[in-house]
Amino acid sequence: MNELTSHNVSAQDMSAFQTYQKKFLLSETFRRNYSTSNGLIYYQGRIVVPIKHQDDVLKLYHDHILFGGHFGVTVTFRNIASIYYWPKLQHSITKYIQTCVQCQLKKAHRPPQHGLLTLLPVAEGRWLDISMDFVTGFPPTTNNLDMILVVVDRFSKRAHFIATRKTLNAAQLLDPLFRYVFAYHGFPRTITSDRDVRITADKYQELTKRLGIKSTTSTANYPQTDGQTERTIQTLNRMLKAYTPTDIDNWNKYLPLIEFVYNSTPNRTLEETPFEIDLGYIPNEPVIKTDNDINARNFSAVDLARRLKAITLQAKEHLEAAQIEMEVNNNKRRKPLILNIGVLRPGSQRCTFQQRSPHEGTTNICCSTFACQKKKYMATHMNWI
């Protein structure tokens, strides 16, 4: 390690280096963990980052459009810790994210919800059950694109961000679905979405029915049904706001980059990237390392098939475990919401009952059950103020 003393380093880095040097000479355990090569110090195969360059690494893996994405502590730590190391790494990441202006301005704060959390069944395989939603409010691009269609596979969590127009109608909606989803992944069994006018249109419902696709929609009082897509949209909006403030008229050009970053970022539920769950490997990223490792397409056909099967079983286990954990953790702060006949839902002043309830003969009604029946009986049993 003596050759490193000749490098021009700051006083803090020199002090840290001298500490490392002393430990290297006196401790066998330290020598097993640390090594040097080409003027760099390695800890368990990871590069030890000098203090003056730690902010550069944090900026690259948190702020950069390709390697960052303004994700939280867990994702950022996982991306950095696989390559770099310095003492109190997670503390540094937490402190950096807490002082990130973009994160403080763009990330949403979520109020508490009423009633217990009820989840959809776990998806059985890749692209068999998908969810989709529309994101509007964008300025028109040079080719008049002003809306994004977001499609998410409920199993692998892989997403497609498709730039389109708000003038898209129910019949035209199937065109981008065929082009960007069905052509690559096949036809799903179910499509979950909100009650957008394009989704509830008779033409769309008839077309999906003829294709053998079941269209399921959420209700105003039960938005958790489409919560996965809504959460993906929050991440998409945050990344667009972070990376297109000076080029807002060409936001559509950033969608492929953002989609790649999103799908190559480890999912906290699955503990793998959506690419790896869906494809069995992680596609090549832009080269920034000094090694020549290629992490894609290096499996034989048999090995890849076995790997995909193992990933499928592991992903299903993680999804089921995450659902149980989510229900338990969320329901600790919630109470069962039971609606007695004639009593308004807490926080709602929009409706009052005028006549007999559609659930006459029962003493109470679960909020989600009532929400499913609301539209059918709304005209005759409810007066909207």
Automatic annotation (TrEMBL):
<comment type="function">
    <text>Integrase (IN) targets the VLP to the nucleus, where a subparticle preintegration complex (PIC) containing at least integrase and the newly synthesized dsDNA copy of the retrotransposon must transit the nuclear membrane. Once in the nucleus, integrase performs the integration of the dsDNA into the host genome.</text>
</comment>
<dbReference type="GO" id="GO:0005737">
    <property type="term" value="C:cytoplasm"/>
</dbReference>
<dbReference type="GO" id="GO:0004523">
    <property type="term" value="F:RNA-DNA hybrid ribonuclease activity"/>
</dbReference>
<keyword id="KW-0963">Cytoplasm</keyword>
<dbReference type="InterPro" id="IPR012337">
    <property type="entry name" value="RNaseH-like_sf"/>
</dbReference>
<dbReference type="InterPro" id="IPR001584">
    <property type="entry name" value="Integrase_cat-core"/>
</dbReference>
<dbReference type="GO" id="GO:0003723">
    <property type="term" value="F:RNA binding"/>
</dbReference>
<dbReference type="Pfam" id="PF00665">
    <property type="entry name" value="rve"/>
</dbReference>
<keyword id="KW-0539">Nucleus</keyword>
<protein>
    <recommendedName>
        <fullName>Integrase catalytic domain-containing protein</fullName>
    </recommendedName>
</protein>
<dbReference type="GO" id="GO:0015074">
    <property type="term" value="P:DNA integration"/>
</dbReference>
<feature type="domain" description="Integrase catalytic">
    <location>
        <begin position="117"/>
        <end position="282"/>
    </location>
</feature>
<dbReference type="Pfam" id="PF17921">
    <property type="entry name" value="Integrase_H2C2"/>
</dbReference>
<dbReference type="InterPro" id="IPR041588">
    <property type="entry name" value="Integrase_H2C2"/>
</dbReference>
<dbReference type="GO" id="GO:0005634">
    <property type="term" value="C:nucleus"/>
</dbReference>
<dbReference type="InterPro" id="IPR036397">
    <property type="entry name" value="RNaseH_sf"/>
</dbReference>
<dbReference type="InterPro" id="IPR050951">
    <property type="entry name" value="Retrovirus_Pol_polyprotein"/>
</dbReference>
<keyword id="KW-0694">RNA-binding</keyword>
<comment type="function">
    <text>Reverse transcriptase/ribonuclease H (RT) is a multifunctional enzyme that catalyzes the conversion of the retro-elements RNA genome into dsDNA within the VLP. The enzyme displays a DNA polymerase activity that can copy either DNA or RNA templates, and a ribonuclease H (RNase H) activity that cleaves the RNA strand of RNA-DNA heteroduplexes during plus-strand synthesis and hydrolyzes RNA primers. The conversion leads to a linear dsDNA copy of the retrotransposon that includes long terminal repeats (LTRs) at both ends.</text>
</comment>
